[in-house]
Specification:
The complex is a heterodimer. In chain A, strands 1-2-3 form a 3-stranded antiparallel sheet, with no helix packed on it. Helix content of chain A is 24%, strand content 28%. By secondary structure, chain A is of the alpha+beta class. Chain A is elongated. By secondary structure, chain B is mainly beta. In chain B, the strands form 2 sheets. In chain B, strands 3, 4, 5, 6, 7, 8, 9, 10 and 11 form a 9-stranded antiparallel sheet that branches. A two-stranded antiparallel sheet of chain B has the order 1-2. In chain B, a hairpin with a 5-residue loop joins strand 1 (2-4) and strand 2 (10-12).
Chain lengths: 72, 143
């Protein structure tokens, strides 16, 4: 992994069309501005991890309980 | 063709039924070919089953059963990737997490699975709208 030190207000360019801007740094939180083409998906990693987890939860081997839910 | 699934019996399918998920599905990034079939005992639910891994079948249902006003906008990129031409060709399904207690059964409204049923192309998208929960109760509270 490439590690770069940046100050508030400074930017990074990734390739030709992605710009990462350090907007502000406060109390251990970094506010980041991102300019990227629309086809690039930008997600908080935790959210992606949660979706992964939930997809794994949806692989349930016992669907027999669905039978009793039929009338609802 | 026959798919011997580990938990959902033998499923008959033909090549034209296979839905291609180019990017895989989060958590199962290496699986790209799925078929969908109704749950035997309750056809409100379906199984989105990998044909590459006999263990992996996700329980899914239509979100509109749960929330009739469920809506989101597909990005132009998704429309392009899935070659969507008409709204009627789009199937929206969401994963369901079962629990022995019905009140704990949830549907993931945050990450709908979009399928172009005509082209047999699918993709799971993640919505930015925080109103839609990853664990939305499947049943209303009167239960």
């Amino acid at each position: 992994m490439l590690v770069v030190k940046r100050k508030e207000g400074e930017s990074l360019l990734i390739g030709e069309d992605i710009e990462i801007n350090i907007v502000s740094i406060e109390n251990g939180s970094v506010k980041i501005g991102i300019n990227a083409p629309k086809n690039i998906t930008i997600l908080r990693k935790e959210l992606y991890k949660e979706i992964e987890e939930e997809n794994k939860n949806a692989v349930n081997i016992d669907t027999s309980m669905l039978k009793s839910l039929k009338k609802r | 063709m026959k798919l011997q699934t580990k938990y959902h019996g033998i499923q008959e399918y033909s090549e034209k039924d296979v839905i291609f998920f180019k990017k895989g599905i989060p958590g199962f990034d290496n699986l790209t070919k799925f078929i969908i079939f109704p749950v035997k005992d309750n056809e409100v639910f379906s199984i989105l089953h990998s044909i590459e891994d006999s263990n992996i079948g996700l329980i899914v249902t239509s979100p509109f059963n749960v929330m009739s006003e469920y809506e989101f906008k597909l990005s132009d990129e998704t429309i392009k990737r899935l070659k969507i031409e008409k709204a009627e060709d789009v199937l929206v399904i969401n994963t369901v997490t079962l629990s022995s207690k019905p009140e704990n059964i949830t549907i993931n409204l945050r990450a709908p699975i979009i399928i172009n049923i005509k082209e047999k192309l699918g993709e799971q998208i993640i919505l930015n709208n925080e109103k839609y929960l990853i664990k939305h109760p499947l049943f209303k509270e009167e239960l």
